[in-house]
């Protein structure tokens, strides 16, 4: 099956390439960055489609952004260190400490504290991955696992394991890690971390991935700042092609255009449109079946409670809580009563249990009905509420 599929793919590509070459010779003017043909607009049409050729000048409804506004908006952090902060900032200006700009720096120890309070719920302990979220670390800084290919039935000994694409094995630059944390994390309150806190979480994740900085292993006492960050070299820095990390961004575009314009980079062969396989079509059987799906592929996705009364430690109620409720009720930053906080839940229950049921089922403030778990019946969701209440006594 693998051979047959690839034969078809190859023939399809060759057909497209041949067609493109034919069109290129008569209509095309240049290629776009993905290697596709860009045609000339002729008689108000782009190939078969009409286009708006009306010219518009001085089109601007707004004022020019100030430098401070641009500084707040522009949070990109590039591999060469562009955008990597030296100080803690607020509203585009350095935070002052004793009259001087406060240096941005964070220790692994602080990173552990921040990670456990704001990241563990999704990414799991030690960045090993959580339910529905991929791991960030496999505990080593090596590209060795990238040579693994997920089950390939055409191989003599197909591997059931694919490559491990985590920070220490796959990411080419640590700048992406810093920028992503700074711009998008934590998911329920993005852009809330200071630059020092981002350095701290970055340092912790680098430690968990076994990354060394300038030959030094990271421990809890290690403090990361801009100067040290610029010395980071990730194991897979040279693992991507074509080169797009060029000093001139336009050259990166040209490198990509040249790569994708060459069909030798993604397969060549003899064109065939009919009866392409001579003789008996080979049939390859899957040797290693993937059966460890969680939940199993054949399992009904809707949760059905047993008829008997659920207990406080009902595992299904706990599972539903972790899936639909923990993101908000496990983090004080959100403002919802945190499970385990006795005072918070005592205040909630002062309204009466029926009121709590009613609010949780219909939704209240920013909480959607049933926390978004609309596949649960009212009675089933009450079990989840009971779980949170009992866990907070």
UniProtKB/TrEMBL annotation:
Entry annotated with the keyword Metal-binding: yes
All copies of domain Cytochrome c, residue ranges: 106-209, 312-392
Isomerase in keyword set: no
InterPro entries: Cyt_c-like_dom, Cyt_c-like_dom_sf, Cyt_CIE
First and last residue of the signal peptide: 1-28
Pfam families associated with the record: Cytochrome_CBB3 (PF13442)
Matches recorded under Gene3D superfamilies: Cytochrome c-like domain (1.10.760.10)
Keywords on record: Electron transport, Heme, Iron, Metal-binding, Signal, Transport
Protein name (database record): C-type cytochrome
Organism name: Arcobacter roscoffensis
């Amino acid at each position: 099956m693998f051979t047959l599929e690839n034969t078809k793919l190859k023939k399809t590509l060759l057909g497209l390439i041949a067609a493109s070459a034919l069109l290129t010779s008569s209509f095309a003017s240049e290629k776009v960055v993905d290697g596709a043909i860009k045609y000339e607009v002729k008689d108000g049409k782009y190939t078969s489609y009409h286009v708006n050729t009306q010219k518009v000048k001085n089109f601007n409804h707004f004022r020019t952004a100030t430098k401070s506004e641009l500084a707040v908006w522009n949070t990109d952090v590039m591999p060469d260190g562009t955008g990597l902060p030296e100080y803690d900032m607020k509203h585009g200006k350095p935070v002052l400490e004793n009259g001087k700009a406060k240096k941005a720096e964070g220790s692994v120890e602080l990173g552990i504290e921040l990670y456990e309070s704001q990241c563990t719920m999704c990414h799991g302990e030690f960045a090993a991955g959580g339910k529905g979220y991929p791991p960030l670390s496999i505990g080593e800084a090596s590209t060795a696992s990238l040579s693994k290919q997920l089950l390939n039935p055409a191989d003599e000994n197909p591997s059931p394991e694919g490559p491990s694409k985590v920070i220490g094995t796959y990411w080419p630059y640590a700048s992406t890690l810093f920028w992503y944390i700074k711009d998008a994390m934590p998911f329920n309150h993005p852009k809330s971390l200071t630059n020092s806190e981002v350095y701290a979480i970055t340092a912790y994740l680098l430690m968990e991935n076994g990354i060394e900085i300038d030959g030094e292993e990271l421990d809890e006492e290690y403090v990361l700042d801009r100067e040290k960050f610029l010395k980071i070299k990730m194991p897979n820095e040279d693992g991507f092609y074509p080169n797009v990390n060029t000093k001139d961004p336009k050259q990166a575009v040209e490198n990509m255009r040249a790569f994708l314009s060459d069909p030798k980079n993604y397969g060549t062969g003899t064109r065939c449109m009919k009866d392409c396989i001579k003789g008996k079509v080979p049939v390859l059987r899957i040797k290693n079946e993937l059966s460890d799906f969680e939940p199993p592929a054949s399992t009904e996705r809707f949760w059905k409670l047993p008829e008997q009364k659920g207990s406080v430690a009902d595992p299904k109620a706990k599972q539903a809580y972790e899936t639909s409720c923990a993101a908000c009720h496990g983090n004080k930053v959100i403002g919802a009563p945190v499970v385990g906080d006795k005072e918070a839940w005592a205040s909630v229950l002062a309204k009466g249990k029926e009121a709590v049921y009613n609010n949780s089922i219909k939704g209240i403030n920013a909480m959607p009905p049933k926390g978004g778990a609309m596949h649960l019946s009212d009675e089933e969701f009450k079990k989840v509420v009971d779980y949170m209440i009992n866990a907070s006594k």
